[in-house]
Amino acid sequence: MKNSLKQTDSEIWEAIKGEEKRERDGLELIPSENYTYPEVLEALGSVLTNKYAEGYPGKRYYGGQEFTDKVETLAIERAKELFGADHANVQALSGSPMNQAVYLAICQPGDTIMGMDLSHGGHLTHGAPVSHMGKLFNFVRYKTNPDAGGAIDFGEVRKLALKHRPKIILCGYTSYPRTYDYAQFRKIADEVGAIAMADVSHIGGLIAGKAMRNPFDDGFDVVTTTTHKTLRGPRGALILSRGKVSNPMKQVEFTKENLPTILDKSVFPGLQGGPHMNTIAGIAVALKKASTDDFRAYAKQVLVNAKAMAQVFADKGVDMVTGGTDNHMIVVNTINTYSMDGKEAETLLDKVGITVNRQVVPDDPNPPFRPSGIRLGTPAMTARGLGADDVRLVAGWIDDVLRAGTGADIEGVRGQVLELSRSYEAGLKSRG
Ligand code: DSN
Predict the structure, then answer these.
(1) Is 299 contained in some domain?
(2) Can you give the residue range of the structural domain that contains 97?
(3) Which runs of E-coded beta strand occur in 90-189?
């Protein structure tokens, strides 16, 4: 008889069971998290984890690639089709190596890259000074404009681009609740001869599900996305590009046409060794799911639910960054609204089974560990099956608890959260 995890390592087994219960009983509102599908978990737990496959399909450095080639080719073709890309690399291990591979492919140490300021919604890998990439390259940061309702200040983006002549202009955020005006970025990138790159990790699934605009429709050169957020796949990444068919065995000069080859070489052998073939199988499964009508309905509902929550907050006078949302996330300034920092708000909501994350707000005077706000979103709740009426209830509970602070009815709200999440338990099994 096969040994089970429970018998072999009961401590790890119990921790996994505990996490299963936490995910089942609570409401997950961290906008970068989701419930993946049971079929993806099956692929992740498969024998593909045993296999070394350095190289690319048909061009590997190890034998025995009959099935890995099939898996990776399916993932590549599905990604290209879904995002309308000429080329897809599916090997980057997650979001950070994904962006590092692009920078290292296009830039030399010391070169300039333009990205969004971290406190205005940019990501750690978009040049935060504490990151290795922030030290290796000269990152120039643009911001949002409070006088324009918190939208990106394109006057400033253009001015900075003309002054610093970046090699890459990067658009894409981890905490910006509005749509991205790709066309304006493209225009500025053309003016200074920069590569237009979008990191759509947060909204990759919403683009795949045709609920949000695709940067390739505005002529972007490179689009990166992680696969575990709105795409609902395993923790992995896609590097998508325009250009000619990749030939990773060849040395090529740097041209836009050669981006597929240059990007592939940057991932392997540039940055990584063996790809995680079980993850790539999981990505292929998630991409297949993302091409269905069901998924398109899901992507639309994520946006409907976010707008419904934002309306509740607006009616209650909550201070939201940019005043609302066009995508799946809402950023609340908890200091201004509830006189508590993001860490306190996160901890209080944890007690009632609602999981959010503390978040910096533009030009936050407070440090990232105790920032001025929280970030919340609808991808995971929507995956479970919650609709607009449900999420309106949740928004009301959040406001009640944070407004009451230490006087909040923790037990009462926790009971309501449990009842709502249990009523959508089936969604976890059938939809992922
Ligand atoms: N850490 C992710 C997020 O929460 O947005 C991005 O990598």
Answers:
(1) yes
(2) 43-290
(3) 112-116, 138-142, 144-145, 151-152, 168-171
